[in-house]
Design a protein that fits this description.
Strand content: under 5%
Order of helices and strands: EEHHHHHHHHHHHHH
Number of helices: 13
Strand order of the largest sheet: 1-2
Structural class: mainly alpha
Shape: globular
Largest sheet: 2 strands, antiparallel
Distance between the termini: 66 Å
Mean pLDDT: 90
Length: about 375
């Protein structure tokens, strides 16, 4: 069966993978260094950084969907950790080894054990160059994601039926309390980031989808709204407009997510090859995001600067480099990410099952002792 034809199984929305594909491709383009983004040398339009905003909104959507599905606390923990930790820890460890063995290949990253431990346990800190980033610098978003997952988990174990509202409340309290009133520059910078409000936009997007508030709007109109939202973000980033990021990128990302998930019912009309390619890129978006900056830099230094095979600042060079980064992401996802995640999930399930058995045995033993005491 076509991956597009079987677009929705249970709570799975294949259109979410298309959002991920668009977001990851945008971020890769912005980091190519072929446009004047992040000190790039080329003259192509500079945009794509808003892909991160799309990811945050998408994360809020997915978490709200999981909470609404009634997923158990243990399955939530297992699913989130096995999805994020194995590949991130692997690539972070590789960066540590490079920093120790070949520090000349890196800019500001050093082989510091303390920084490594803080990185793999998602504890924000300032690097030597003053940026609030872990060893694998794109992992800064994962520090936020793990905090969001912590809020969701706390909500599930306290107010399960109102977990969405409690999650939003916890995020708001943390953003205000730590972002403005904590006596810590790290906490102020970390929690003062308005990306955190984009989770709330994502949860609202799920509510709009679940309640079918846009069900009567034609798919053509929704596609136009989503496209307009993306083009708006690209335009304001090219023009370097400096006002609220939540307004410039958060709200349009909300519109993009709402629009694309509304197209779930017409995925069968998309050519199979195109649909499969988009969903494949979306499936691999996490692997692509974590690896892309090193892949693109390798292409630049080897094929452009050393072998002079391509000009990475040209349209053709950008297209080829972008393709290499996306294909590499798919390969890492297939042969490294998926096996590692599956292994981690299996081990965690066994640990949770063991703890459940031990807990059950302890409770039975306690009841037996209590019963014996009562009959004396």
């Amino acid at each position: 069966m076509s991956i597009v034809a079987s677009s929705q199984q249970g709570n799975r929305l294949e259109t979410l993978q298309i959002v991920r594909a668009v977001a990851s491709t945008s971020v890769v383009y912005s980091h190519l260094g072929s446009a004047p983004c992040f000190g790039g040398n080329g003259h192509l339009p500079c945009f794509g950084g808003f892909g991160v905003d799309m990811f945050f909104v998408l994360s809020g959507f997915v978490m709200a969907m999981l909470m609404a599905s009634g997923q158990s606390r243990s399955r939530f923990v297992i699913g989130r950790i096995s999805r994020i930790v194995p590949l991130y820890w692997t690539l972070t460890t590789l960066i540590l080894l490079v920093a120790v063995l070949r520090p000349d290949l890196l800019n500001s990253t050093t082989g510091n054990l303390s920084n490594y431990l803080r990185s793999i346990f998602f504890i924000p800190y300032f690097k030597e160059n003053g940026t609030l980033m872990p060893l694998l610098f794109v992992g800064w978003t994962l520090n936020y994601e793990m905090f969001f997952y912590l809020c969701v988990w706390i909500s599930l174990i306290t107010l399960n039926k109102h977990a969405v509202w409690m999650t939003a409340g916890l995020v708001l309290v943390a953003q205000i309390g730590f972002g403005y009133y904590a006596d810590s520059r790290v906490l102020n910078r970390f929690f003062g980031n308005y990306h955190m409000y984009e989770w709330a936009l994502g949860m609202i997007a799920y509510w709009v989808h679940h309640k079918r508030y846009l069900g009567n709007v034609s798919t053509k109109v929704m596609f136009a709204v989503g496209l307009a939202g993306y083009l708006f973000m690209a335009t304001v980033e090219v023009k370097t407009v400096h006002i609220s990021r939540l307004l410039l990128y958060g709200m349009p990302s909300f519109l993009v997510v709402c629009s694309i998930v509304r197209l779930e019912g017409i995925l069968h009309s998309i050519p199979r090859t195109l649909g499969s390619a988009l969903i494949g890129i979306g499936n691999a978006s996490f692997s692509t995001y974590l690896s892309h900056i090193y892949v693109t830099q390798a292409v630049r230094k080897l094929l452009d600067e050393k072998l002079h095979v391509i000009d990475i600042n040209s349209v053709l060079g950008v297209t080829l480099t972008l393709a290499v980064a996306l294909v590499t992401g798919v390969l890492i996802h297939t042969f490294l990410d998926v096996p590692l995640s599956r292994w981690c999930k299996n081990r965690m399930e066994k640990v949770f099952e063991y703890l459940k058995d031990v807990s059950g045995a302890s409770r039975r033993r306690a009841r037996e002792v209590h019963s014996q005491d009562s009959t004396r």
